[in-house]
């Protein structure tokens, strides 16, 4: 048993029970700072995560194009376009819904984090009838334990050319650029317009050549099994259209959502939300117009959103149908990286609660009357659990509180910084650090790891990537969630 886990188990008695007041402002600042640790490309002068340096500077050279920048999705050194675009959408949605709750400096930092992604996403759709969906061969990359600054693995570029389909990645890219265009509208209207123009272009590609990007033979070996489209491409088409409707108020996108809802399976898998399945988020997003009294033709989206939200209320008749909770109260879904569900679902609860509040409405789950405040309390329990109000008394956000995972599954964090150890560390030489029981030398501040199991148990083990690996799409919705509680801490 590691020293950290022993301390956590001891500390659980002190910190795991009772009410703990969390510093949501500190957590928000750190959740945004995390994205600096995931940066690829040339780092700016004001980079605060100083143990990182430039990386991936030749990305795109095989296509004679610049594909530098963007984010590494998790603890590896691959740039996967599908989850990166979803991350961007969620960061932008966080600002759109909750930016007014952020302190001005953190709002600026959030916009910087979004722009680091959107600048890259613009590059991926810069060529006619082509979208770049990934940089880096994951099989080779995952066979190494190597700092991004030392990468000597193949930086294979994966592109989809029309008429081959990439509806999922292109649709999510459209959503990301459209959502970001709203986030930047007041601070940088010129950039906002560029984002929106390219969002329309990405959506046209997605809709014109329908199908999953991972069905392409030249893409499948790179995308799968990591970020295959497991849930179908149809939801990304509706999601992209919904964000374009929100950004433009153009009725053509409204008509698209209305007329394509059934054929694209708007009523399918309504209890899922994440990088692969957008249904629950789509329904919440579209419900805004329904709740505001404008669009009764979209009432089915509201019904689906509320059906999902009712499953999250323990007292609701439908609570046991889709969602499980750990004994300590954490939302639990089977599969790895569980905290992605807790952060994204909490985000949707808070967004919907705001929509209800602004329109003076509530939610009915069977014979149960659910107020916006009930949804907010549900979300707050998830946030507080992640920050340390759990049976182990452990913060699952690195660098927050005195107890947090020290041995996260992350190459750059676990290997000595190039600033401290400028000598090259080759592919297999990093295994020494991977297998070490020592804490990571570089603290990836703000990273939210995959989290505990269904029994609330957690072992601080670098090899257990399902529990100790952070991802950008765990953090992105958490930025919005924390921003809400900065403005409404009680």
From TrEMBL:
- Quote one Gene Ontology molecular function term: cellulase activity
Q: Which reaction does it catalyse?
A: Endohydrolysis of (1->4)-beta-D-glucosidic linkages in cellulose, lichenin and cereal beta-D-glucans
Signal peptide positions are: 1-21
EC class, as a word, reads: hydrolase
Q: Which residues form a coiled coil?
A: none
The UniProt similarity line reads: Belongs to the glycosyl hydrolase 9 (cellulase E) family.
Enumerate the Pfam families for this protein: Glyco_hydro_9 (PF00759)
Which PANTHER family has this protein been placed in? ENDO-1,4-BETA-GLUCANASE
According to UniProt, the name of this protein is Endoglucanase
Q: Where is the active site?
A: 409, 460, 469
- Note the Gene3D superfamilies from the entry: 1.50.10.10
Query: What taxonomic ancestry is recorded?
Result: Eukaryota, Viridiplantae, Streptophyta, Embryophyta, Tracheophyta
Instruction: Pinpoint the Glycoside hydrolase family domain residues.
Output: 24-482
- Which species does the entry assign this protein to? Senna tora
Q: Which GO terms describe its biological process?
A: cellulose catabolic process
Give its E.C. classification number. 3.2.1.4
> Which keywords fit this entry according to its UniProt record?
Carbohydrate metabolism, Cellulose degradation, Glycosidase, Hydrolase, Polysaccharide degradation, Signal
**Statement: the UniProt record of this protein carries the keyword Mitochondrion:** no
